[in-house]
């Protein structure tokens, strides 16, 4: 088998191994449940293995959708002692049980790609038609409950909700969250080197927030008013924006078209406020601290995500493309999650430096949209080089390309099948 065939075979094997029957765990051991944005990316990988299975990934995730439309960040289909905090901590009633927060809503965009690229068009139409009302309810939930004052930016209440858990962008906001005093036992450190994971002090605050949501009866108004962690995450807002645009498009090809004026108005509103998050010196967009009503001055890869949502001007896109090239000089093995020039940069610690393949892909997709095909291709080449060098790890040291975190990771394998091989 040549090198390419071998990489393809390995990636497909990873998806099959991590398949627990209709849903895919991110990796065995460390993450034993179904995660929201992982499911979207992973479905894309299944497209190259088994189209029906790609659709099932979404259907299984939507089994956890709440009545208000929210799609949780984790759906606990099966019990496992490998992960903390599990369903006994979140205490959400429901079958299947879930967490009480969400994650960047990639699903609509992934559904669109799979719908357009799949070969079985009849199957795709049936599956799309069934998923549309669920996707619409999910997006409506974001705008209704997470932007109740119609500012154009949705709120996040937990670093886990951003999908970029220990990003230094959250450090100051997290300092305002009390540390939980009850004892608890982490499980992640049984699987991964502690140097690559968030610190205990951060976990103490993460768990405080889990308790806070429950103590506030998961009531969106109480949480909006009082949550000590309250951010407007640029990356999540960009993912939502792109997803809404894709959903508006999908409504035109669905068998039954519905009134999308409310989602159209939300997307237009977001378009109006994104410019306020642009930083003219850093050449990227910034996250926002809701309670202090100001942007958070930390350069992260999330700040380039408005490329993916088509929310940048051509001038901003050109400045971001040049900035990305500079980051790639300092960290040549994929786009660093935190700028290598930030004092908080840490090459191996999760979202404080490492490069993540699905982020590289989304940003490359945005760069292509703006005509920066050369930088998009550079991102593709460096991403390809790291999997050849290190295999399908959860994330990679952007300086050395060393694989970090969990091994045989579903979304890394999926993005490789879709983008790199
Ligand atoms: C955790 C599953 C998840 C991802 C997140 C990533 C990590 C889980 O793993 O969070 O417990 O720390 O940060 O983006 O969805 O792959």
UniProtKB/TrEMBL annotation:
Limits of the Mannosylglycerate hydrolase MGH1-like glycoside hydrolase domain: 31-412
GO molecular function, one term: Glc3Man9GlcNAc2 oligosaccharide glucosidase activity
GO BP annotations, alphabetical order: oligosaccharide metabolic process; protein N-linked glycosylation
A Pfam family this chain is assigned to: MGH1-like_GH
Signal peptide: none
Superkingdom of this protein's organism: Bacteria
Keywords, comma-separated and alphabetical: Glycosidase, Hydrolase
Family: Belongs to the glycosyl hydrolase 63 family.
PANTHER family, per database record: MANNOSYL-OLIGOSACCHARIDE GLUCOSIDASE
Name of the protein in question: Trehalase
Origin species: Marinomonas pollencensis
